[in-house]
Amino acid sequence: MGRRPCCDKVGLKKGPWSADEDQKLRGFIKTNGTKYCWRAVPQRAGLLRCGKSCRLRWANYLRPDLKNDLLSKKDENLVIDLHSQFGNKWSKIASHLPGRTDNYIKNYWHNHIKKKLNNMGIDPITHKPLVPRPPTHDHHNKSRKELRKSRELEMHHQHEGKSIDEAPVLEKSVIPNNDNLDLVKENLTIDTGFSVDDIPLIQPHEMLIPPLPDDHLPSNNCPPSSIPTPSTSTKCISSSTLNLICEKLKSLPYWFTNDPCKNYNIGNTSYAEDGEFTDWDWLLNNFDIDKIDPEIFSKEKKD
DNA sequence: AAGGTATACAACCGCAGTCTT
DNA sequence: CAAGACTGCGGTTGTATACCT
């Protein structure tokens, strides 16, 4: 047996609330509190709304403790951090921000934060660097709105851990992995024309570097500018090595340094309080070229 | 200036969990 | 224990306004 709808909806008003309706609801709650179940509220308050609509209006808009101003930079960072932990659990995120509702956080995410993260080259769903997609004819045939929609769907599927082929989208992104590395590289090398929306506004020094395997991470006993080697000795980087590293890295497509495969991990990743990525500094300070899989460079030569 | 498009926000919808009877 | 009622939640849609061509 299914649930009955909360009301028959016949003769009830829908859409935006008028100031008069707000006044009636506000006055009713002020006088009676929320002791009545919401189904009873519209009739008692003289409103032609369903109880659920009243509850939402009160919870998301009329409650006196709500803040309506934009989030501060600090709160924005908090939302981003919480979203990376909880995903789209808007109520959970909102519970950390007094005076904000889940609906407010959800809207704010979609209208402000998501765009900012995209511009920073960060996938707002996975919180990982965006991967550029080879262009398709769809870029020319579809409206920007349609493209955005299909891209959102696509990212959602990636977040759900589904394969690319499972995503019902018109343009497929390609995630580098052991199986398709060459294919990805080929696509990126042959055709680098992206739509304007695809270009992440990210500078080379802002690139994320995936984490080293634990046994390659510097231990607390090591000085900041050194890194343990398999022989347990430590090495400091020379300027010539640094130049070599830079030259080698410059020759790689940027996704190489973001490869989710562990084979090419050469750095550690973190996100600083002020929104700056710090690991490029770490990489330059601690990098040991001997630890790079030589196959990276041999692949370059082969291509 | 007008029409089209993008953006921001409010509100709705429907599912699911919890409570009540 | 089962069924219904209520509430919370997340996704989606509608709409007003701003912006662009």
Automatic annotation (TrEMBL):
DNA-binding among keywords: yes
UniProt entry keywords in alphabetical sequence: DNA-binding, Nucleus, Repeat, Transcription, Transcription regulation
Coiled coil: none
Residue numbers spanned by region Disordered: 127-160
Basic residues: compositionally biased ranges: 139-148
Annotated Gene Ontology cellular component terms: nucleus
Compartments, record wording: Nucleus
InterPro entries per record: Homeodomain-like_sf, Myb_dom, Myb_TF_plants, SANT/Myb
Sequence ranges of Basic and acidic residues compositional bias: 149-160
Protein name: MYB transcription factor 43-2
Species whose genome carries this gene: Heracleum sosnowskyi
